[in-house]
Amino acid sequence: MSEMIKNFLYLNRRAPYGTIYAWESLEVVLIGAAFDQKVSLAFVDDGVYQIVKGQDTSESGFKNFSPTYSALGDYDVNQLYVERESLEERGLTLDDLMPLTWEDEDEDWAEKDSIRVVSRAELAGMIKDQDVVFSF
After folding, report:
1. Which residues contact 109 (CB under 8 A, 6 or more apart)?
2. For residue 114, with 0-12 CB atoms within 10 Å meaning exposed, 13-18 middle and 19 or more buried, which class applies?
3. By the number of CB atoms within 10 A of the CB, which of 6, 15, 100, 124 ranks highest?
């Protein structure tokens, strides 16, 4: 019998609107988490725009799905990695991102940050350690 797959990393590389990749990634993450998969997300390149706070799509004709990211903690998806270099290249900082959190039941439901900014080299190592990587 083959070993059970344990770690799924969803690599989000594209801007949130203009294509369906970001929305599809979010849907697949929520489905996987609902089936108790160990899910983590990484935001690189223009994918960092997916979690920028204050998104307004009213002029674009696209539905703003960014509030859905706030539900990730409810699905035990609390490992969100943002590549530092991608933020810097776009003039963004951690303060520009949504405050995504989760509640740690082992610490009396203390609210903790889900987002961790990592270097390109750290992220490359993390990708290498995953059982499955989905790129969107």
Report:
1. 103
2. buried
3. 100
Nearest alpha carbon to residue 77 among 128, 109, 41: 41
pLDDT in tens, 33-71: 988 888 999 999 999 999 999 999 988 888 899 999 999
CA distance 68 to 111: 18
Q: How far apart, in whole angstroms, are the C-alpha atoms of residue 6 and residue 72?
A: 18
What pTM value is reported for the model? 0.92
| Interacting residues of 112 by C-beta distance below 8 A, sequence separation 6+ | 78, 101, 102, 103, 104
